[in-house]
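4.2 Preliminary Data

To establish feasibility before requesting continued support, the project team ran the inverse folding procedure on a target of 78 residues. The structure was first converted into the token representation described in Section 3, and no sequence information of any kind was made available to the design step. The complete token record follows.
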């Protein structure tokens, strides 16, 4: 396969991938697109580097990410 097509497919796949992370400052669970570099926390305002964040769930299904996010939020105190 042409290397440029492999790169293009990789970019498309990352655009369709979602991650669930937890803000390291306030512990609020958050959802973001995997291709984002940073995500701001709406609770404390911290700018989170997604390349360094601990990922609790990675999925291509946004509904799955939202469901997991809801479960995580219900289990924490925020």
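Position-by-position output of the design step:
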């Amino acid at each position: 396969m042409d290397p440029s097509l492999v790169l293009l497919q990789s970019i498309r796949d990352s655009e369709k991938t979602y991650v669930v992370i937890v803000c390291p400052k306030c512990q609020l669970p958050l959802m973001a697109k995997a291709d984002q570099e940073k995500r701001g926390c709406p609770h404390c305002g911290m700018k989170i580097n997604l390349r360094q964040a601990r990922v609790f769930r990675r999925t291509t299904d946004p509904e799955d990410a939202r469901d997991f996010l809801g479960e995580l939020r219900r289990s924490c105190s925020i």
